[in-house]
Write a structure and sequence with these properties.
Elements lengths: L4 E9 L5 H11 L5 H13 L15 H6 L6 E6 L3 E7 L7 H8 L4 E7 L6 H12 L4 E7 L8 H15 L6 E6 L23 H7 L12 E3 L2 E3 L11 E5 L4 E2 L4 E5 L4 E9 L2 E3 L2 E2 L3 E6 L10 E3 L6 E12 L11 E6 L2 E15 L4 E3 L10 E14 L10 E5 L6 E7 L5
Parallel strand pairs: 1-3, 1-4, 4-5, 5-6
Antiparallel strand pairs: 2-3, 7-16, 8-9, 9-15, 10-14, 11-12, 11-16, 12-13, 12-15, 17-21, 17-23, 18-19, 18-22, 19-20, 19-21, 22-23
């Protein structure tokens, strides 16, 4: 299990398309549910008056979610098959909770977009597919759900997939796949379906197990944002000086020549340490301590990279923002705190260029402000230089959040650069 490949999933789509039920079915059919969990949802299903086990209750854990029958917050579930480990984020479908969907999909390798076969492609379906493409989720699987309620009609499935394929042609989706499912009864979720012999593809779980995700990660641009300087100050380790953090991208090895930003000083990696010992190689995603041959003044927020492969350095940032605040609006001239990797600064909105109409994908140029769940392109000016790459090249160093300094609430999530459409 320790050496199995980890894949992050996010379920998206409109309200009542069956996202939570699909996850529950997947967990149930792969034997990932404990007996006490099963008994609890059986009892909860009886109290709600349903004559079946409501597997959606496995992920809809908030009382308000169970009362309303909708997902509000992002619920994370963990499961494994003989081939892979999965972290699955069940994101809300209601438009009011679009910001929660952005949070859940921001780290996903694969996005599952669910569609109710009876209703077809809805505005929220398009919204979530658009957001997934903005967030550069490399693989998108459209699951046409509730096929049992349309008598497993191939014509219904073909009409929905054709419409979505036409819409997705305007988005940046590198890998798009389709699968007809019934989450309630389990058709084509973990096991194949006898009710849809016209479908020759694989069940959903088999698709998830075989999508190639290793090449999606940036292993070329070495980026290490320093989170903490480790100086034990003990007699045994009095000369120890290490820099802790998580490798954002690329691969680091002892002996590599590195450069520290913003100072520009260079050195060589002496060792890469972890709790379990030193490493000969550290790829993206690992949390490590890097020790250098030379004593250099390095602090939180600095970036370790390669001398001949450096990120961009600048204070004027062109970005696409998803606005998340009900009470605070984004307007030109507004000031916020900005958090980018481990670096913090203040930022002012220089310009709000336009916002997106998610339904039509058109740009609305005459825009005075962004309100909750709206998406637009802005130009920011920061008080300190940031070390960044374009988001399409590096999701870790190409993203940031904006924070309201009065309340310390996160009010916006941004990606640097991005498609203009």
């Amino acid at each position: 299990m320790e050496h199995m490949e980890l894949v992050r999933l996010a379920t998206t789509g409109s309200v009542d398309d069956g996202k939570s039920t699909l996850i529950g079915r997947m967990l149930f059919d792969t034997k990932q549910i404990f007996q006490d969990q099963l008994e609890a949802i059986e009892e909860a299903s009886r109290r709600r008056g349903t004559d079946y086990i409501d597997l959606a209750l496995l992920t809809d854990g908030l009382r308000a979610e169970r009362e309303q029958g909708i997902t509000i917050d992002v619920a994370y579930r963990y499961f494994a098959t003989p081939k892979r480990k999965f972290i699955l984020a069940d994101t809300p479908g209601h438009v009011e909770y679009t910001r929660n969907m952005v949070t859940g999909a921001s780290t996903a390798d694969i996005a599952l977009v669910l569609v109710d076969a009876r209703l077809g492609i809805l505005e929220q379906t398009r919204r979530h597919a658009f957001i997934a493409s903005l967030l550069r989720v490399p693989h998108l699987v459209l699951c046409v759900n509730k096929m049992d309620l349309v008598d497993y009609d191939q014509k219904v499935y073909d009409e929905i997939t054709d419409e979505f394929r036409s819409f997705a042609a305007r988005l940046d989706i590198p890998d798009l796949r389709f699968v007809p499912v019934s989450a309630l009864v389990g058709d084509n979720v973990v096991n194949g379906s006898d009710n849809m012999d016209w479908y020759s593809g694989s069940p959903l779980l088999e698709i998830l197990e075989n999508i190639h995700v290793a090449s999606d990660r940036n292993l070329v641009d070495a980026r290490f944002p320093v989170q903490y300087v480790i100086r034990p100050h003990t007699m045994e380790h009095q000369d120890y000086r290490g820099y802790a953090g998580q490798i954002a991208s690329g691969v680091f090895r002892p002996g590599d020549e590195i450069m520290v930003l913003p100072s520009g000083f260079t050195s060589t990696i002496a060792s890469i340490d972890t709790f379990d010992g030193s490493l000969d190689e550290a790829p993206a995603g690992l949390s490590v301590v890097i020790r250098l041959q030379d004593n250099i003044d390095i602090s939180r927020g600095d970036m370790i990279c390669r001398p001949h492969n450096q990120p961009q350095v600048g204070q004027d940032i062109d970005a696409i923002i998803t606005w998340m605040s009900e009470s605070v609006k984004l307007r030109p001239g507004a000031k916020f705190a900005i958090k980018h990797t481990t670096r913090s600064a203040r930022a002012m909105v220089k310009d709000l260029q336009y916002r997106f109409d998610v339904e039509t994908l058109h740009r609305i140029d005459d825009t005075a402000e962004l309100t909750m769940n709206e998406i637009g392109r802005v130009t920011l000016r920061t008080t300190a230089p940031l070390f960044f790459d374009e988001y399409r090249k590096n999701r870790q160093t190409g993203s940031f959040i904006l924070i309201d300094e009065a309340t310390n609430n996160t009010v916006g999530a941004g990606i640097i650069g991005g498609a203009a459409l």
